[in-house]
Amino acid sequence: MSTNTPLLETIEPDDPSTAQAPSRNTTSNARPAVVLTPTNNMASVPADAESGIAGILRQSAHPAALFCLYFFRISAIAVYILCGLLTNNYVLSTVAVVVLLAMDFWNCRNVAGRTLVGLRFWNQVDDDGESYWVFESRDPSRPANPVDAKMFWIALYVFPALWLLLFVVSIFRFNLSFIPIVALALVFNFTNAVGFTYADRDAKQRWANSIASSGWNMGMGGIGGQILGGAMKNSVGRLFR
Predict the structure, then answer these.
(1) Which of 100, 104, 130, 106 is nearest to 120 (CA)?
(2) What count of Cα atoms within 13 Å lies in the side-chain half-sphere of residue 159?
(3) Is the Cβ–Cβ distance between 120 and 199 less than 8 Å?
């Protein structure tokens, strides 16, 4: 090969048979194209199924009670805000909001709390004129639906915070005429929140005491079992005070 010959002219072309062989193998081994098509299958993951109001009501054991709980609470706040913006009729606004608050208070204490979480409370006056709280709870062997319990406690604690925010807004806007309505809403909501909190704590304490007493008495028996059972009840009961 001469040194004067250009380098490109010295490069021989590839063999066509060897150049096309890989392409034939590639074509023969190629997989068919995969086409993704959307489906209408429902979500099988619990986190996806719980998303949305329809999913929550579908998993609820008492959807009617859960719906009424949120309906009355949301309606009371919505009517309070809309009446303040759309009308100047103070009497109509007061009556509408107070009626919704009373219905929500009764429904939460007597219906929603009993059906959704198995708790109930009331205030009773004895013969001596002294008042005390009475708490009721369902059998621990029948636990509440987790969706119902979660949504109930959310409603119990979130809506008092919203009414407290509206109370602060009324003060800063010098809207003193609506402060009594917000104060009544705070009384109703905080009464239910405190009552059910203590009812839940009382139910857990009684459940712990019964488990401790039955377990130690069955294992030890006699005076030793009673002594150890009493000590266990005191120690476990302090966890829920």
Answers:
(1) 106
(2) 30
(3) yes
Residue 32 has pLDDT above 90, yes or no: no
| pTM strictly above 0.90 | no
Q: Distance between CA 170 and CA 173 in Å, rounded?
A: 5
Q: Taking the alpha carbons of 136, 141, 146, 147 in that order, is the dihedral positive or negative?
A: negative
Query: 209 near 230, Cβ under 8 Å?
Result: no
Exposure of 77 in the CB half-sphere (CA atoms within 13 A):
17
Rounded percentage of the chain residues whose pLDDT exceeds 90 = 35
Per residue in 176-203, pLDDT (tens digit) is: 888 899 999 999 999 999 999 998 888 7
Residue 234 and residue 205 in contact, taking contact as beta carbons nearer than 8 Å: no
The length of the chain, given as a count of residues:
241
What residue type is 165 in one-letter code? L
In the block, residue with structure tokens 């979130």:
158
CA atoms of 60 and 147, how far apart (whole Å): 6
CA distance 1 to 126: 122
Segment 147-153 mean pLDDT: 93
Q: What is the DSSP string of 163-229?
A: HHHHHHHHHHTT-GGGHHHHHHHHHHHHHHHHHHHHHHHHHHHHHHHHHHHHHHHHHT-HHHHHHHH
Residue pointed to by tokens 């003060």: 171
Tokens at 91, concatenated: 């009497």
Long-range CB pairs of 215-220 (<8 Å, 24+ gap) are none
**How high is the pLDDT of residue 230?**
54
